[in-house]
Amino acid sequence: MKILVTGGLGFIGSHTVVELQNEGFEVVIIDNCSNSSKDVLKGITSITGKQPIFEEFDLREKGEVQEFFKRHQDIEGIIHFAASKAVGESVEKPLLYYENNISTLVYLLQELQKKKDSSFIFSSSCTVYGQADELPITETAPVKAAESPYGNTKQMGEEIIRDTCKVKPNLKAIALRYFNPIGAHPTAEIGELPIGVPQNLVPFITQTAIGLREQLSVFGDDYPTNDGTAVRDYIHVVDLAKAHVVALQRLLENKNKSNYEVFNVGTGTGSSVLEIIHSFEKVSNQRLNYKIVGRREGDITAAYADTTKANQELGWKAKSSLDEALASAWKWEQKVRS
Ligand code: WQD
């Protein structure tokens, strides 16, 4: 069975391609390589022994999207990762984010609605909750006004899919709201490859530890949390990838309860920035150079998932520990810099 993975050379996309191939799916990747490298194809192939079909073009080219679906009429499912995802950049360049994240989604859905039956998995984010009023966060928590154009594109994306599914019963969709993906494949053949200075915590930690960065700045220790630093739900990227396969299988096997569903994908456990640092120091057996600075604009105090719905309805649960996830990130950083 052929599955399209857009953004399949990216961090979460590449790990999902591996898990799809492990489950016997034939994978086609579309990626414009704007935030990824073709070398990732080699990494995927070295893990699974199977080279995915790869087509390099920009999903903003509507004509190319239409031609693609004419060439691949046997695609039965799509997992849609391709999007811009830097919160800070989205504030500086909102139109880039609305064009890239929204028009591409619309073009894909326009093709899918023509098909007799289709399954669509959307890469969403816990960002839609903002600072939730209650923790852990359930899927019924209210979606709050987005704090960035990036977050707004995820909210709008979910609404576009929901509205389309309402009038297209042949289109089945699941939005997966990720918490904080970290780590790398245990083989260290694929992992996170941030371009430029990493915005996210864990790649900044591993790059500091390897000597690429001078020092980690901890953005605030005056939050109302146990140790004053902000709390997030850090999930191993392989666990997250497996959640995509399980969600896709739910739709392909018609086990979905409605044709638009939402699931939180996290571990259910919150960890503070200092707890991440201490865990990393333990698994890497080295001290990390960091300093406490002021809060980062737009950051929330705490977010971690209530995973009951995913556990019970998807039959999926994150398996890796925080130490395992951080050890895999460190192994990957050492491999990339060797
Ligand atoms: C985590 C914690 C920072 C860097 C974002 C997006 C989310 C998703 C994941 C795409 C926070 C602190 C960070 C640093 C630090 N992206 N931190 N020093 O902001 O929770 O989520 O990335 O889907 O949508 O919003 O992740 O890794 O940037 O930050 O102290 O150098 O680490 O303040 O508390 P975040 P993050």
What structural class do helix, strand and pairing data support? alpha/beta
Classify the beta-strand content into a percent band: 15-25%
Low-confidence stretches: none
Radius of gyration: 19 Å
The largest sheet, given as strand count, sense and whether it forms a barrel, is: 7 strands, parallel
User: Kindly state the mean pLDDT as a whole number?
Assistant: 96
Number of strands: 13
- Indicate the overall shape: globular
Task: Give the ligands present.
Answer: UDP-4-deoxy-4-formamido-beta-L-arabinopyranose
Share of residues in helices = 40-55%
- Order of adjacent strands in the largest pleated sheet: 3-2-1-4-5-6-11
Task: Please provide the ordered H/E string of secondary-structure elements.
Answer: EHEHEHEHHEHEEHEEEHEEHEHH
Distance between the termini: 38 Å
**With helices defined by DSSP (H or I, 4 residues minimum), what is the helix count?**
11
